[in-house]
Amino acid sequence: MAATVATPAEVQAVQEFNSELRLVGRKGMAAAKIQWARSHYPEVLPDTDSQLQAVPYPHPNSVRYFALALRAQGGRTPEGSTFLPHADLVRIAAEATAQIQELCTGSRWYVNPAETLHVSLFHTGRPDEPRVLSKAAIQEEIDTCRLLFGLLPCVELTVDGFALADSGVLLLLYTPVSDKACLDRGHCGSVDHVRSRCREAFPHAPRRQTTTIIHTSLARLIAPENLPEEQLNAVEEACHRAAERVRGKRVRFDTVWFVEEAISLACMG
């Protein structure tokens, strides 16, 4: 998979998507989406501080995807590099997540463990379209994944900021990279390009895929089904403050995970 950069149209599409996502989330949560998420977490007890536990999928190997690893312990950043180290980005994201939880008194959240944070690229099985395969068939997917990503140069993205979507998911957002410097470094700045190559390699994968958005899911609101206006405003301000620390920074991804997700809505398996 050759080094390539995003087109101006791709960059604009992602920027507009991120802006619209923030605008919609600012207006409040979508109750149906919160209810759907809560169905994956039995015994949600608002008056307890215990860690929520998501339910396992009926078939542990039915949800699979490729993802860029955002590694809490670093990610190799060359000495003297201008790239934001993964550990710094994960720390800032964790601080923002904790602050937002504190602002939303009376709410319950599922926070994704730092070691599972990632950027989703492509699904070969989805929660809403599970694909149960034999061990041999899964091994074929892994082998194809290795061939596909084995020659993939580092993926370079720009941090855009944070947002609470109307689904209740707290997101770290990125935009693709289109400048010549990325190409000169031999990096890939176009996630669209990577996803298109995945579709070519896996033509029978679910039709519905993650498109346009480039994100890391940090936490998920489980209860209540909406937040009062003052909390929504406070969350927006917290996202803005956290974004000021990272917006415009470049992040370099050099690891792709093949994930067999065994636990609902969690990068665990």
Described by strand count, sense and barrel closure, the largest sheet is:
5 strands, antiparallel
Ranges where pLDDT stays below 50 over 5 or more residues in a row are none
**What proportion of the residues is helical, as a percent range?**
25-40%
Strand order in the largest sheet = 2-6-5-4-7
| Helix/sheet category | alpha+beta
Report the strand count: 8
Provide the β-strand percentage band. Answer: 15-25%
Number of helical segments?
Answer: 7
From the alpha carbons, calculate the radius of gyration and give it in angstroms: 18 Å
List SSEs in N-to-C order: HHEHEEHEEHHEHEE
Distance between the termini: 27 Å
Overall description:
- This protein is 35% helix and 20% strand.
- By secondary structure, the protein is an alpha+beta fold.
- The strands form two sheets. The protein has a five-stranded antiparallel beta sheet with strand order 2-6-5-4-7, sandwiched between helices.
- The longest helix is centred in the first third of the chain and has 19 residues, at 8-26.
- The protein is globular and about 50 Å long.
- The mean pLDDT is 89.
